[in-house]
Amino acid sequence: MKMKIRHVLGISGGKDSAALAIYLKDKYPQLDIEYYSCDTGKELDETYALIKKLENYLEKEITILKAAAGSHESPFDHFLKYKGQFLPSSFNRWCTKNLKLDPFEKWVGEDLVISYVGIRGDEDREGYISHKSNIQSIFPFRRNIWSEDVVSKVLKNQNIPVILEYYAQFLQGSELTRALEIAEQPLSTRFTQSEKLNSLLNINTKAFNRVVFSFLKCTKYPIANLYSYSLLDDDQILVKDDIFQILTDSGVGVPNYYHKVQFKVDGEIGEYARSRSGCYFCFYQQRIEWVWLYEQHPGLFYQAMEYEKEGYTWGQNESLADLIKPERIAQIKREYLLRMSINQPKSPYLLDILDDAEGEGCAACFI
Length: 367
What we know:
Elements: E1 5-10, H1 15-27, E2 33-38, H2 45-58, E3 62-65, H3 75-82, H4 94-108, E4 112-116, E5 135-138, H5 148-154, H6 160-170, H7 173-183, H8 193-203, H9 205-216, H10 240-250, E6 261-265, E7 268-272, H11 287-296, H12 298-306, H13 320-323, H14 326-342, H15 352-358
Parallel strand pairs: 1-2, 1-4, 2-3, 4-5
Antiparallel strand pairs: 6-7
Helix pairs in contact: 1-2, 1-10, 6-7, 6-9, 7-8, 8-9, 11-12
């Protein structure tokens, strides 16, 4: 007997998750997707505005999840006190676990869940994969919609015979011949999993999806409980420009913090913006983004400064008080302009140099 599957999608307040929600509603209206957002209590106003616009477009409520729901403080402040005022950092991302993952997994419970994640086709990162066996991640924007753990299981050398059988069901002629040649080659230091995956996808992405789906039928992955799955025939690859186009065409629009703002230093004109969603004091921000926050949202910047106590700072080796000294701001802007002159941005909204340098931060922060 097949069990009920919940389809869920987390709205982070950023461009990718918002575009994914729109994309799936328009292309796969048969999927009964539940939408949620993990509220840390420290989001920009634009995040809440985007959630409202999305609710109107999706014609569904976005469930707001909050950690420490019974606390009189914001979720972040509650756990900051619990952590002894130890600020989160790239070395200790307690905010990710306590404010994002724990509320999500509590909301899911023991239900079988397919979680849709907005990792784009032009990004080289895996994204959030739950350690709970009842939660399975799918990546619709990528050519490879499957998570790393699934691909690793399917392409194990011991599974070659069954993979060959599945391919014989879904391909014929020259495509089948090429697929079998690749599929029967064992993984080795000379033929890696990534190389094998891409070779099979190059032959026929839809066939690969059907092979994986058939293989997973004999596993405990949530998707094994589906008789069919519409995303098996989705071989599109969506990149950054596509994301902005989806947001614009839908009428939901691009969050304001992605729009470039001009600044001036040493008589030279530059442009900056925020490159990420998440908390306004996210420690993954580059220094130019901190300058943007200081100049565009000074009240929030000073609130972020108040958290820096007893040697705990948001950035490594530099406090926010030092960062906003006039000579330091000028230096940050000059260095940023130099980088931008080498990496000319193409997007009218997002600073490509920031994306290239750090991505959008911790992948799990944006579920």
